Predict the 3D structure of the following.
Amino acid sequence: HWGLYITCHADGTEARALDTTLDRRIYQEGDFVRILPHTSSLVYQALLAKNREIAARRFSASLLAHLFILRDFLKACDAADAIQEIHKKRRWLLAQLACDLLHWSDPFQGILVAIEWEPLEYINEQLKTVIKDVQNLLPESVRTDGFYVVIDEANVAIREIWSSQNSDSGPYPALKEIIRTWRDCLASFEGFPITFVVAGTQIPQSYFPPSSQEWSLWRWTSDTGAFDDPEIQKEYVLSFLPPSLVQTPRVQALFRRIWDWCRPRQVPGF
């Protein structure tokens, strides 16, 4: 699928726009209040609103950085008509996982640093423009297949970016503000179904209660299994492979190798 792969923590060559934003840069804001007063305080709502405005600007900027690069990538693809659609998708994923293939320095992070102090109005205007451009460049199939936004290592963003005195409200995990901000930003993707995939470990389900209207349409899943049975593991891996490859000798050997590699590393944790 076409979409964005954005990690909250880059431990290799992944794009670092969101990682950089989460790495305490938000606390450089002079108006940001890390500990809010009691909810009964006359200034509580105003300070909370200001914090959310700052968070929205910061997280919108990280999203904009990814969309800027996607737009340029799609333009380059248009100029190279011979590239098949599936190869374009794979190369775009690779560009986000190994962004040093695009440039010796991380271009996603470079764009973020250039725009992160711009006012929210400017960033929102740029988002509208680049989203419109991306819509025009994406194939029509995306209107059916959808556009995916993957937030990886989301457990890193589960920490609170601000708190309140006496813990009388909250919690305020960064992840919630990221999802809310990007959901609002991408609402202008008219006619393109947007699907968020949020992946991480030890994310409290209580932060996203299905009983609330905001999260009622989200599906919570943790059914990847313990990888303690070779057949169950094989069924899981099959879901990611083209059917034409399943019976080939190389893939059958791959199943055995995955079992040998994953089992001793996974079982002790359960």
User: Anything to note?
Assistant: Confidence is low (pLDDT under 50) at residues 265-270. Residues 44-79 form the longest helix (36 residues).
